[in-house]
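Hey, resending since the last one bounced:
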Amino acid sequence: MPASRACWSKTSVACCSNRVPASTPPAVVQRLNAEINKALQSADVRDKLAQQGAEPLGSSAEEYGAYVKKELNRWAVVVKSTGVTLD
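The structure tokens again:
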């Protein structure tokens, strides 16, 4: 079954994020996160993203990790229940 038909009742969004190696010191992760979130508050950055159809949200590394885990679990159910495969 094509993925487009298998997921007709599910909502999905494109998500962009910045990632670093797992070995990155927590202080560096926190600093990067703070600076990226600060940039996302800039009117210029928000305008540029809006022109591309993007909605800047920003979050903590922990919040984003929880989001990714939730999404992986959600889509695993879709894949397993439909038997969808990639060609």
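DSSP finds four helices and no strands in the chain.

Sorry for the duplicate.
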